[in-house]
Fold this protein.
Amino acid sequence: MESILEAVKRNTKGKNEARRLRVAGKIPAIVYGAQKAGDQPAPESVAVDPKPFLRILHSASGLNTLITLKVQGGTDSTVLVRQVQLDPVSNHPLHADFYRVNMDRQIRVTVPVVLRGESRGVKQDGGVLDFVHREIEVETLPANIPDSIEVDITDLGIGDAIHVRDVAASAAWLPVSDPDMMLVHIVTIKVVEEVAPAAAVAGAEGAVAAPAAAPAGGAAEPEVIKKGKTDKEGDAKADDKKK
């Protein structure tokens, strides 16, 4: 996806200038990098309007959106967002870094993973889906950056997993993350039921204990606690009961 963003060249720099721009409703930014092989342009200070910039950040392609930066009083460039500094309280952008891209040179970007389908291990067997890594790094030309990478989990049963090596490469991009990096797997959770101990039997063997006085608000009910336990914890409780 490609967008157009207008910017104004800044001739002054520094914290005071950046503060003045923010008060005026602008976001200070810097543009660096080479558009063509052999070029060594100096970094360029600019200011952008927050509304169209936020629309780009919140789009499907997000930080991977290819932007035509039209600089008033400067040089137009094709850029990607390198970094955004956010206010810790309002989460509003305070500063942005753009870098120029060479459309003929491969670059590496991080792309979100999107799961497609419903795992049979979850649907039929009661398993739980564990989404371990939600992004993959890929190598591609700037014009071919995907918005996301779909991973089909329909056939995953309990204990099955999908790794980076299982993701089919596209003609437009190549995964470069660790091939053994796990993206998603289906796990099962063992649940042990614990029943509260019965009331102690009073008197001689065979005697029936007198019913305990019911607490205010009604008769007491046996408490059943369901809690996920590891095998070791379950064995330890069994040993304690034998003692």
